[in-house]
Structures
1.
Amino acid sequence: MSFDPATPDGENASLTSAISADGTPQPGTRYTVPARCGVAVRLRAGQRLTVINTHGTQVGDFWAFNAEALDEYMSMEHIRVDLRSVFPKAGDRLFTNRRRAILSFEEDTSPGVHDTVMAACDNDRYQLLDCGGYHDNCTDNLRMALFAIGERAPAIPSPFNLWMNIPVTAEGALDFLPTVSGPGDRVIFRAEMPAIAVISACPQDILPVNGTDGSIRDLAFEVN
Ligand SMILES: [Zn+2]
């Protein structure tokens, strides 16, 4: 069977969590990304998206697509080349797979620990972690969040994993550690082109990336 990047392996409330029919936000309104779900938001060039780690312990998988051609999207591979770093920081531009800035990373009130290395979780990943039946996952949340505003995922780009604590040692080893952010920490991105951003409150409750108690919590965002 051929692989359709837009079709989820299962369903959750991401399908019914759109903020409006086409994802256009009301400026200044605070929206919730429900725990374990994903939400898409449409940005005009020049608008600022603030993502808030309401409880401080939650990782958010984060994507941005060119709203006029979704096969151009924020690309971790291209960002790492441009920044010569695996850790983008406030002040950095964030490139697409066409090496154009789609977002500027303007502010970060957290300690600045985010990840660009790990692929988004998907149902197959959870089966490898011995979860048994279907498990909510960020890949399906991306697919459903785009469906919910009338769009289709053209691919599953590697996400910018906000607040995900994946240390990289000098030897190149990786680990999965709890976030080091605090309640109310926020990151602010400026859209450099018309964009659709998607945020998933990562449902990873097998590894301790969302804290050691296995509790998945909501995130929040607003556009100004
Ligand atoms: Zn995830």
2.
Amino acid sequence: MNTSPPTGTRHGVDTTLVVLGCDGSWVGPHGAGSGYLLRGAHTNLVLDLGPGTAGRLAGLMGGPEARATPTGLLDGVVITHRHADHWSDLHSLATEASLTGRPGPLPVFAPAGVAETTGLSGHRSLSWQVVGSGSLCSLGEFSLRFARTDHGPETLAVRVTGPGGSLGYSADTGPNWAWSTLGEGLDVLLSEASFTVSEEGFPGHLSGRQAGQLAERSNAGTMILTHRWPTVAAADVLVEAGEAFSGTVYQAETGATYVLKDGRVTTDGH
Ligand SMILES: [Zn+2]
């Protein structure tokens, strides 16, 4: 790990975000838990690995012949906190890495204690890197910056600055938190929005309205809503957030792809 400052955006080179799963807290029919693949020109990073995400990652990066396995092409993983809906499929990746002979252990960035919670602290195919609020790290083309959120156990939001711009991921958080803790100049916010206003007050999570309010206090132009409880209507959360945030709002869907280029976001039509 080094402490170099985040690198700047490189003109004309993009960062792609693929949603591996976006169900919040538990998994709904045909859904998957939190998981996001970030791809630069030659760096692949995963943010969280909730239930059902490993298979989707294999579909994107592996192949039926299993010569190109997901972990063989992955450069690192961030696990934001110890709740299992954010890391359960790390077990699949660790086993795959050990049985297919990944060259070198897979770096996993996580708060203190997460390795022990997962039961994978001593796994030979993983290289745990303990991070905390304020930590700065580099992984290939990406620079990472972490900030603690408003959530029960130590939970780290992460800023990923890469060739296409800067993305902030809230992980899980309640309303007593600010995007500015990840620094200024975020281009896109991947924000949790677990429910609607009727559930406001439930600790450690946001309604669509609250997510919109937090985003409005940043200078980001785009927000992608995620971590929605499967029983909550996507359209309701989206409307709430859109009323509170003056930028562009998307509701994440499993498999959706967002391209960040020159600090601006385009989608693949999802
Ligand atoms: Zn959580």
